[in-house]
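Summary for the funding panel

The consortium committed to producing paired sequence-structure records for every protein in the target list. Below we show the first two records in order, beginning with the earlier of the two.
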Amino acid sequence: MPLLEGKTALIFGVANDRSIAWAIAQALAREGAHIALTYQERMERFVRKLAVEIPDTTLIPCDVQDDHQLEAAFAQAAEIFDGGLDILIHSVAFAPRQELEDPFRNTTRAGFQATMDISVYSLIAMAKYAVPLMQARGGGSILTSTYVASEQVIPKYKVMGVAKAALEGSMRYLAGELGEYNIRVNAISPGPLNTLSARGVSGFTNFLDIFTNRAPLHRTIEQDEAADAALFLCSPLARAITGEVLYVDAGYNIMGV
């Protein structure tokens, strides 16, 4: 029997076929989950093209900076999933390009606020709407995606690294609060992947070479490896795990100088 037979999953963050969120959607569907994907208006045609690959996938428009759209997205998910939700995937991150190019000390107030709002607060806002739907199912799993730049200085990552640190803190506070409802909250921390957001970081290609040399397995990772880790954390196999960051980075995070 598939691990997620009869389960429902709402996924935020699919932009194209290289997105971690898309790989996760495929992994969850492979194990029997009924999938709904959200999309930004500018990404609709890309997401629609992908969605046909997973039968019975529903598409829901949503801008995570708009509380009304977030509320409407979860209301639509509730209709699709008969009032309940088992899995919420938060794979959303953004920083204005200039904030990643200028010195960190020159981070603007507006850029900082936009980065934190989209990359961090969106998880908190989603959790608020997800909780009653997960309570209706007797519990659930919320998963976000972080990066080792939350605790190490990664050149060029700058304000996004600070956002990832805040994201991990938010994940832990949500895990501590939602455990009484049998809702688990975790994060995966993949190694560098060739995603739309990663390509926005200058020097990304050079960092891949550094990563490969330093990681114990001496290789980068693939989207499906991150997705399989996500599948594990969202499945009954991880039923006693919450508030954790699971590194999927070929061991890079354990290495010193």
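The next record, for a separate protein in the list, is shown here:
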Amino acid sequence: MVTAGIDLAAEAVRTAVAWLDWPAGRARLVRVEVGADDALIVDAAMGADKAGIDCPLGWPDRFVDFVTAHRAGHVHVPEGLVGRAWRRDLALRVTDQVVHEQTGLTPLSVSADRIGHATMRCAAVLAELARRGRPVDRRGGGVVVEVYPAACLKRWGLPYRGYKRAANLGELGRLVDCLREMAPWLDLGEYEAICRASDDAIDAVMSALAARASARGLVTVPAGEQDGAAATEGWIALPTAPLECLVNDR
């Protein structure tokens, strides 16, 4: 099995892709690319058994309805709700709220934050995959699954804050050290240096690990009423088993 991890930003310069090969009982980082363009992202997803994308796969349904209503001049504020309370479902998808409930982390709002630019790019990538015969199930059931590296790190007991940007290379190095200690079966090989130098690269690696968890059924999936929203908004797959379960049957 090969899993790909895509740390998707609005522009190629901050986008990284990582490929993990999974021989019996081990994982090997076989390639990392920083500065990935759309063509490389599509090729990575097409060639992987499972690809984890660190980017929202859609917008909140209620936000889409709100924008449509606003265009027609018919915005309606629910009775009894004011301010942040009624805007919550416009800013956060169902999956974002579930992630917050389960981890205490709040994903960036695709409708009210700059990550919306990355999601516009992601929409074009998903459309190209569909044109090539790999339509995406935004619930995570197909080749692509939406992932959230910070939540994965937290659930797997790894440092999940303070490692971003060049000013925090020490913390990034500590994260890599902890990953090597907790996952001795993971061979970073010649790409360990770039993982220590680029938080985009390590997020891509975490996304590839999360893709493996999804492929093995070791992640959360939408249930009940969540399923309908996830089909259009996307669904963040959170790990439900320890890191070592990616390479064993426990």
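Regarding this second record: The domain at 2-58+93-246 is CATH 3.30.420 (Nucleotidyltransferase; domain 5). The chain has a mean pLDDT of 95.
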